[in-house]
Amino acid sequence: MAEDFKSLMGELIQDAYSAETQLIEALPEMADAATTPALKQAFQEHLQVTQRQVERLERVAEMVGCDPDGEDCEAMEGLVAEAEEIVDEHEEGPVRDAALISAAQKVEHYEIATYGTLAAMAKACGLQDAAELLAQSLREEKDTDELLTEVAEQQVNPAALRATAANDPTPRKKGSAA
């Protein structure tokens, strides 16, 4: 395993660790801000999943021979700040829940990219145990993304549309687009 590649992998593990620890702090606030019970539950359950992912990253860091602390994940800082803005700028209700899902799915897609990259790197290095741990986290992130899509499609988006229509004073003619 080339030192440069190993160093890069260590940096990416630190970045992922920083991202996940930031998310551990943000998820309870997102759960509190959500009004749809299924969304609130999804955030609460993902908090538990994220805590397990942090433990896995610590194990992977040990396998690679790096300290999981060290890097600050600026991307996650931005994604968390975006979620905080949503809470501050939108009134409680289904429209804010739809915005929270959008923010959460951005986080999930970032994490999917992160774990996919790290799993491939571990596999290339012959670190099969690390690759399996990272692949498990990757599957969990994909599952969470799918769950958020289901909650959006089945509950939040229809409720947000109803709330918007109920608050829209503009009368519309049947069949008109505007």
Q: End-to-end distance, in Å?
A: 61 Å
Following the backbone from N to C, one meets helices and strands in this order, namely HHHHH
Average pLDDT level? 93
Could you state the CATH homologous superfamily? Answer: Ferritin, core subunit, four-helix bundle
CATH class: Mainly Alpha
Report the β-strand fraction as a percent range. under 5%
Taken together, the total number of domains comes to 1
**Shape call:** elongated
Report the sheet with the most strands, covering strand number, pairing sense and barrel closure.
Answer: none
Q: What does the radius of gyration come to? A: 19 Å
CATH architectural name: Up-down Bundle
Helix segment count?
Answer: 5
| Helical fraction | over 70%
What structural category do the secondary elements indicate? mainly alpha
Overview of this structure, please?
This protein is 82% helix and 0% strand. By secondary structure, the protein is an all-alpha fold. The chain has one domain (3-163): Ferritin, core subunit, four-helix bundle (Ferritin, Up-down Bundle). The longest helix is centred in the C-terminal third of the chain and has 40 residues, at 128-167. It is elongated, with a radius of gyration of 19 Å.
Topology:
Elements: H1 3-33, H2 37-64, H3 74-89, H4 94-124, H5 128-167
Helix pairs in contact: 1-2, 1-3, 1-4, 2-5, 3-4, 4-5
Short description:
82% of the residues lie in helices and 0% in strands. It has 5 helices and no strands.
Provide key terms for this protein.
178 residues; mainly alpha; Ferritin; 5 helices; 82% helix; elongated
